[in-house]
Write a structure and sequence with these properties.
about 200 residues, mainly alpha, about 45% helix, about 0% strand, globular
């Protein structure tokens, strides 16, 4: 429990179908090692972080919000990534560093306002990132299974958030700490209200 490479048992060993996307190259099925989940071992050049922060602030000042349409990716973004999951983390981390919330990133992959992410939604969302992001059909299926923890062939918002908060990149570590701090504050406030209910 708690490992990000935990995979659901699909009936009849069925995988999500990504047949309409042709593999760009032969990918490895290597699972990330335990070391890759240590956020303290993941570093980013300070100059890169400053440039991304500056770009995000410029975009916010012009539009008031951030979206994937404002982000650009090239092959250098993924040159250190060894698996499809690594590449997904790079995409989601760049979005997070640019100011997007988990809900905004989740919405990018959805085809409708209130639904979950289907295999087709997921494939189409990743294809919009651009040609720099190369994933094989096998890698797509493996990534989808990793996020689809209950094996129902969709990724809901809770599954998505659970995965995001465990991404071993510094931006997500900071977000996880912020989320846990807010959760503790909410619990403390609720306990105070129970102990000292407002007078009617």
């Amino acid at each position: 429990p708690g490992r990000m490479d935990r995979r659901p048992s699909y009936a009849g060993n069925r995988r999500p179908s990504f047949a309409s996307m042709r593999p760009s190259f032969d990918g490895s099925r290597r699972r990330p090692s335990s070391d890759e989940f240590d956020p303290s071992k993941v570093n980013m050049d300070e100059g890169v972080k400053r440039e991304r922060r500056k770009s995000a602030m410029n975009a916010i000042s012009m539009t008031g919000s951030i979206s994937f349409d404002m982000l650009s990716f090239d092959e250098s973004d993924f040159e250190k990534d060894k698996t499809g999951l690594d590449k997904l983390w790079t995409v989601m981390t760049k979005a997070k560093e640019s100011g997007m919330t988990v809900d905004q990133i989740f919405s990018f992959f959805k085809s409708d306002a209130g639904g979950d992410i289907s295999p087709l939604d997921f494939q189409e969302g990743l294809s919009k990132i651009g040609p720099a992001l190369r994933l094989t059909e096998l890698e797509l299926a493996d990534i989808f299974q990793t996020l689809d923890t209950d094996g129902d062939q969709t990724i809901d918002i809770n599954e998505f958030k659970e995965h995001c908060y465990k991404i071993p990149r510094l931006a997500w570590k900071a977000e996880r700490i912020r989320m846990e701090r807010e959760k503790r504050k909410s619990i403390e406030l609720a306990e105070k209200l129970v102990a000292n209910p407002p007078k009617s």
